[in-house]
Amino acid sequence: MFEIWGPILAGLVALVVGGELLVRGAVQTAERIGISPLVIGLTLVGFGTSTPELVTSVQAGLSGSPGIAFGNVVGSNIANILLIAGVSAVIAPLVVARVALRRDAMVMLVVAVVFAGVAPFAPMGRIAGVGLIAALVGYLCFVIHQERQHADRGAIYDKTVALADADPGLAPPHAPHGILMPLLLAFAGLGLVVFGGSLLVGGAVSLARAFGVSETVIGLTIVAIGTSMPELITSIVAALKRQGEVAFGNVVGSNIYNILGIGGTTALIAPSRVPEEIARFDAPLMVLVSLLLVVFATTGLRITRWEGLALIAGYGIYLWKLWP
C-alpha cells in the first residue's frame, strides 16, 4: 500500500513546497528587474497557487491520462467552491466585494459555461488551448488596466493578498540586492514542482489500477483535492483573519485560472478529448455550483455560515456519488 500512497503524498508535498519556492523566486526576480508590484501580484503571485494543478494536468496529459488531466481542472473548481469556500464561510462569513461579484464571478461563470458547452462536442486541441490562454491574457490585461484606474480591487488581487497573508515573505517589497539567488530559487521550485507532478500522476495511475477505479475519478477527487491544498490553506488563513472578501476572491480567481490557464495549457501541450463522464456530469455540475456560489454571494453580498455548511454538505454528496 505504501508503494501506491507514498509517491502520491511525496508528490503533493513537492508540489506545494516547489510551487511556493517558484513563486517566491519569480516574484523577487520580477521586482529586481523593475516590474510593477500590481502586475507582479496579478500575474506571478496570482498564478502561484495554481502551479500544482498546472504541472499535474500537463504531465497527466502527456502521459496519456486525460481523465486525470481534465478531472484535476474540473474537480479543483468544484472543490474550490464546495469545499474551500464552504470551510472558509463556516470559519467566518464571507463578505463579497461588489467588483469581485460583478466582474470576476461573472467571468468565472461564463468560462465554466463555455468549457462545459464545448467539452462534449470538440476535442481540447491546440486551437482550443490557444483560445483559452488568449482569453486569460485578455482578462488579465483588462483587470490590470481597470485596477490601475480605480481603487476597487477584484478577485485576482484578493487571490494575491490571500497568498501574501499566508506567506508574508511574498508581500512586496522584499527583493534581495542580487538576481542570482531569486533565479536559483525559482528554478529549484520549478524542479520540485515537475518532480512532484510526476510522482503524483504516477501514483494516481497506480492507485486507479490497484482499486479498479477509473483515472477520471482519481483525478476528480484525490488529485483535485491534493493540488487545491494551497487554495485551501490561503483561504482558511484569510477567513481566520476575518478577511472574507479575500477568501472569496481567492476561490473565484483560482477557478478562472484553472479553466483558462491550466485547461488551455494542457490542451496546447497535450491535446486530448475531455473524458465522456466529465463532459456529461462533472463539467455541468461545475457550472451549477459556480452559479450557486454567485447566488449565495448576491444575497446580501455575503456567504453565511449556513450557506457554507450547505456547500460542504454538497461536496460530501458529490464524493459519495462519484466514488464507487
From TrEMBL:
Example GO biological process: intracellular calcium ion homeostasis
Top-level taxon in the UniProt lineage: Bacteria
Keyword Membrane appears in the UniProt entry: yes
A single cellular component GO annotation: plasma membrane
Keywords per UniProt: Membrane, Transmembrane, Transmembrane helix
Topological relation to the membrane, as annotated: Multi-pass membrane protein
Pfam families to which the protein is assigned, alphabetical: Na_Ca_ex
Entry GO MF terms: calcium channel activity; calcium, potassium:sodium antiporter activity
InterPro entries, sorted: K/Na/Ca-exchanger (IPR004481), NaCa_Exmemb (IPR004837), NCX_ion-bd_dom_sf (IPR044880)
Predominant place of localization: membrane
Domain Sodium/calcium exchanger membrane region, residue spans: 8-144, 183-320
Location within or outside the cell: Membrane
TM annotation in the entry: 6-23, 35-58, 78-97, 104-121, 127-144, 183-205, 217-240, 247-269, 281-299
Protein name: K+-dependent Na+/Ca+ exchanger related-protein
Organism: Thioclava atlantica
Phylogenetic classification of the source organism: Bacteria, Pseudomonadati, Pseudomonadota, Alphaproteobacteria, Rhodobacterales
